Amino acid sequence: MNGKPLRWLHGEVKTPPMSVEARREMGMLLRELQEGELLSLPQSRPMPVIGPRCHELRVNDATKTWRLIYRVDPDAIVIVEVFEKRTSKTPPSVIDTCRRRVRAYEASRT
């Protein structure tokens, strides 16, 4: 495999709870990120509220909407969280958890 590795801090992409189609779409988008592509809306949007280089992948399932919070580092794609989005805004608890995970990850690398 060429490209950046995925570093999973939390969460997973699997069926169930995701449908096969949603899991495949999420996998395809992650592969594009690994190969250096820059994704934008509607697939991805920046999440500066979490931290620099942080983004949110967006995948719609048949009855659910999935989100994957990631950060693009020079040496990897860091997966911070995977969750089912139930409201129009990202819940503050998810944002706080992601901030803590990113800080802990950065601290572990120094």
Tell me what the structure shows:
The structure is a single chain. This protein has 110 residues and is of the alpha+beta class. The chain has a single domain, classed as YaeB-like fold (2-Layer Sandwich), CATH 3.30.2310. The chain has helices at 20-34, 92-108; strands spanning 6-8, 44-46, 54-60, 65-72, 77-85. It has a five-stranded mixed beta sheet with strand order 1-5-4-3-2, sandwiched between helices. It is globular.
Summarize the structure.
By secondary structure, the chain is an alpha+beta fold. It has two helices and five strands. A five-stranded mixed sheet has the order 1-5-4-3-2, sandwiched between helices.
